[in-house]
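Re: [ENG-882] Designed sequences occasionally contain unexpected residues at chain ends

Forwarding the minimal case from QA. Structure tokens:
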């Protein structure tokens, strides 16, 4: 599409994910549900603010390039973004930036010790270790009044399947023996 192209959610789950305004949220399910695309679009929420910084992850650079980086090239120019291909960063007219990175090795999160961002997104979150995701959540802060957000999308399976399932059990665990709080898709719980 050209100028004036409008993007719309392709499903109710995708729309629910995108309308959620809380700190931490996820969107899971089978392949082809628009999860990666929703993550890319969700990261755009703060681009009007010059201090906004977002960071989107896949586990390996090849996965990142084939999914998020290639798909961003379809959407981000329509939002005024300019791609800096060597460092995988998009800059928007306000000065806001959305960057792409990966964490192939378990300790790769340590590269982000001095990072301060307002949005962190994980594509295929179950391919990440718990400490990688939780450490990046600690990088979410803002002194500029921008609401920080952690988002993830994923299919079932992978090295992180168990910890994701346990952390989000109120939404995911439908077993009768589960005795914790229960929540419907899109329902907000406070802890």
């Amino acid at each position: 599409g050209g100028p004036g192209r409008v993007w719309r959610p392709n499903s109710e789950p995708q729309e629910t994910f995108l309308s959620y305004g809380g700190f931490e949220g996820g969107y899971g399910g089978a392949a082809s549900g628009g999860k990666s695309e929703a993550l890319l679009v969700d990261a755009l929420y703060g681009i009007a603010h010059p201090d906004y910084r977002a960071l989107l992850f896949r586990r390996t650079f090849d996965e990142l390039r084939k999914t998020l980086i290639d798909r961003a090239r379809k959407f981000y120019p329509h939002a005024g973004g300019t791609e800096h291909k060597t460092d995988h960063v998009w800059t928007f007219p306000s000065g806001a930036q959305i960057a792409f990175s990966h964490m192939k090795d378990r300790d790769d999160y340590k590269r982000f010790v001095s990072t301060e961002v307002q949005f962190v997104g994980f594509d295929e979150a179950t391919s990440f270790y718990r400490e990688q995701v939780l450490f990046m959540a600690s990088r979410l802060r803002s002194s500029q009044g921008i609401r920080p957000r952690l988002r993830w999308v994923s299919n079932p399976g992978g090295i992180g399947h168990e910890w994701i399932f346990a952390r989000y059990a109120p939404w995911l665990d439908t077993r009768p023996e589960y005795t914790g709080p229960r929540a419907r898709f899109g329902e907000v719980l406070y802890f």
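QA comment: On inspection the terminal residues look reasonable. The chain has a mean pLDDT of 91. Proposing we downgrade this to a documentation issue.
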